[in-house]
Amino acid sequence: MGLRIAIDTGGTFTDIVAIDDASGEIAAVKTPSTPHDPSVGLLTGVEKVLSVMGRRTEEVSMLLHGSTVATNAVLEHKFDGLGLIVTQGFRHMIEIARQSVPDGYGNSFFWVKPPRLVPLHLVREVPGRMKFDGTELEPIDEKATLKAVKELVDDGVKCIGVCLLHAYANGAHERQLGDLISKHFPDVFVSLSSVVLPEYREYERAMTTLVDVLVKPYCRTYLQNAADKIREKSGPIPFLIMQSNGGVVKHSTAGERPVTMLLSGPAAGLLGSIQMAQLAGFKDILTIDVGGTSTDVAIIENYKPMYTSASQVEGYPVKTPMLDIVTVGSGGGSIAWTDPYGSLKVGPQSAGADPGPICYRKGGKNPTVTDAAIVLGRLPASLIGGEIQLDLAAARAAYEELGRQFNIPAEEVAAGTLEIAAVNQVFGIRQVTTTRGREPGNYAMVAFGGAGGLFATEVADFLGIRTIVSPPNPGNLCAFGLHVSDVRRDYIRTIVRQQSKANSDEIIAVWEELARTGVDDIRAEGIPEDKIAVNLVADVRYFGEGHEVQVDIPANLQGSDAVAYMWKQFHSVHDQTFGFNYEGEQDVELVNLRVQAVGTQHRPSLKPQTAAKPKAEPFGARRVYWRATGWVNCPLYDRTQLAAGQRIEGPAIVEEYGSTVVVPFSWSVSPDAYGNLILEKSA
């Protein structure tokens, strides 16, 4: 309780939402991100929101933080200085991968293999081997290991991932390597697969470990810098970091395994969207979070998010418990460029916050989606309350130059840029809907992020979605979502057992051990035991299958009842997932046991607007370009002045401090009592 501040650091802006639990006061601000050191933007944001509220740093009781720093490092292919150490004989592990093409071999002609996280010349083999059951087959050769590490360091490697065969069963060899590297090369960052992902499947474990060590220099350094400076000003207050699984942990915990932060910011946005959708009366939603560098999409059914233990970011597999979010490299800062074949492309490269889009007047030279939006009249002359003045002339000049390559006007190539960016987002949405047997048109879309309102209707039209929800302060929703998060930790143990041969007592013992660890760790985060819940989960498959499905155990089942439920329920889950089951025909195989420990935190309450407001009138008009009609004078509305229930027919532009909502022809918009804008397709 007290004054809690949540900070979400994106590739372009840092968003801050402060809530005073005693008075209910809420303040939301934005400030430019500082990619060279995200802690600078974080602390600047804290000072800014305190100034707006007229409060002192001594009054802050908690800081919550989410970030896309880790995600953006992967999306922008910042792989320099990355090396990998593997068991002798497995040097080509990540080159061979899974010997498959995404979406089947029919996609072979179109699919382009993503750049390797680690090129082959920066992969080293070391002698030493464990058996599948964790017993040692061959000891580590320390002399050969040090030679391999020195070669990598001499080649410019600063971050090393270690993935040895069967380390999930026994991580002793990896720990030995980690100690050697830390002792002889203390400036090198190291991640061990047995710590990052103690789960079988070497390729996925290696890739997840590489992503972890890739983002470790970015995350650990800035988190510690921020923590030190916070402690100087506010004392030892909790500094909690959002993880990909939708829960928060201490900053020190997050810094040790930064791969858990990969979808940190997007996860917070998902929690915030559920909260606002519930107030708006939509239980089945599709979320689209459009930031400066990336777009994150997910589906929610009956107010519950979906979880996964395996995901992909920009084509790279990452296995760690996370909310089921798909990320694509398409955002306001995405760069428009021409490929060698003369086709217009948008992203995944981003101008970020520094130098940013051309219109920011900070030295940007590449036309971006934001530049296209201002050329088309979709954006005002300034952002975040006038703090960032936009240069329309410079943006238009860039698109005129790009248009000359295609012999079309600047506004046409700008409109094409927005359309391509929207199509990139549509592809991401289809990954969580149509590819899983779900019709996008059956969901309401919750659009947020600084650029969410620019794209919402365009994306919805592609997918047949007829209802869009724009929550209050959509550019700050990820920061708001941090306020409605819980403390959460996930644990896993690989234990491959066939049902016909399994010992229930062994399974129960593993679950109980993981549960005890979870409760202890959550208590260490400052949560009392009566606020901690433990959920049991199992990864199960038919014997002979290559992939498993996740079985969630009801909270009221423990011990042998939980084990019996796992074996029985698996058939139903398999049928729901794949459309068939082999109950009574095929032996069942347990692969992993999981435990999710959740500590419930205080949540702020939002009050509806009760006092009647007069209907707002446009405060002006601006020429906006639409492909169907050309340039049209569109009315401009101040979102803060709109009355609940007021209906506005498009075309129109609704502006606010941190975002702009575009209402095109055939769409209307109306605010509800909680400040959500409800957009509806009228034709």
Can you offer a commentary on this structure?
The chain has 683 residues and is α+β, with helices and mostly antiparallel strands. It has 5 domains: 76-218, Dna Topoisomerase Vi A Subunit, Chain: A, domain 2 (3-Layer(aba) Sandwich); 264-331 and 421-482, Nucleotidyltransferase, domain 5 (2-Layer Sandwich); 334-413, no CATH class; 488-599, Dna Ligase, domain 1 (2-Layer Sandwich); 620-667, no CATH class. The protein contains 16 helices and 37 strands. The strands form 9 sheets. A 10-stranded mixed sheet has the order 3-2-1-4-11-12-27-30-28-29. Strands 13, 14, 15, 20, 25, 26, 33, 36 and 37 form a 9-stranded mixed sheet that branches. Strands 6-5-9-10 form a 4-stranded parallel sheet. β17 (311-313) and β18 (316-318) form a beta hairpin. α11 (392-406) crosses α12 (410-432). The two termini are 47 Å apart. The model has no long low-confidence stretch (mean pLDDT 89).
Summarize the model shown:
With 683 residues, this protein is α+β, with helices and mostly antiparallel strands.
What structural category do the secondary elements indicate? alpha+beta
Q: Approximately how much helix is present in the residues?
A: 25-40%
Query: What number is the mean pLDDT?
Result: 89
Please, how many helices? 16
Unreliable parts: none
Question: What does the overall shape look like?
Answer: globular
